[in-house]
Amino acid sequence: MEALILPGKLDNLGLIRKYIKSAATEAGLEKKASYKLCLAVDEMATNIITHGYDKNGLEGNISVEAKIDEKSLTVYIEDTATPFDPTTKEPVTKEDLENRIKEGIPGGSGVYLVCQSVDKFIYEHIGNRNRNILIVGSPKYVTIEGKYPKIVCCSDVNNISHFPTS
Questions:
Q1: CA separation (Å) from 81 to 53, 85, 104, 108?
Q2: What percent of the chain has pLDDT over 70?
Q3: Helix (H, G, I), strand (E, B), or coil: what is residue 92?
């Protein structure tokens, strides 16, 4: 699909959601997988806008591009905000999240949510751009074990080879 490039403003989250829903439909994702992908992209875009641009007094665009093949739907989210590699954050556990909720501590669950919502999450910093890559396996593609391999929060682009090629 052609990339969607929009100003990094919260007002544009609806357009991003619409684009992702369309890509999920085109890729044949099941309803639950489509919802989870939309949630992950929404969380990532919101973080880019609020933490990457707004809190740093910056303005810039967000580029969202979906690529579909027979095995997966891959979403590339790029921005020129302050570099931030979410894969270097201390992993948040379900217990950590429950404690934060009990104690009324806001935030801290975004990266966890993204990683739980997709099959693979990769971060790259290329030139002056942050690139977040979210991959969801096609429901038509099943491994011998009966499920799509789950590899999350991986910043090493070479690990994409973990996806079966046949």
A1: 5, 12, 29, 19
A2: 80
A3: coil
The CA angle 109-112-117, to the nearest 5 degrees, is: 120
Q: Is 148 helix (H, G, I), strand (E, B) or coil?
A: coil
Read off the pLDDT of residues 112-140 as tens digits, 9 standing for 90 and up.
788 888 999 999 999 999 999 999 986 65
Predicted model pTM: 0.80
Q: For residues 90 and 158, is the Cβ–Cβ distance under 8 A?
A: no
Q: What is the 3-state secondary structure (H, E, C) of 6-27?
A: EECCHHHHHHHHHHHHHHHHHH
pLDDT greater at residue 73 or residue 140 = 73
Q: What is the mean pLDDT of residues 54-59?
A: 96
Contact indicator for 137, 37 with CB cutoff of 8 Å? no
Q: Which helix or strand (DSSP H or E) is residue 136 part of? A: strand 129-137
DSSP 69: -
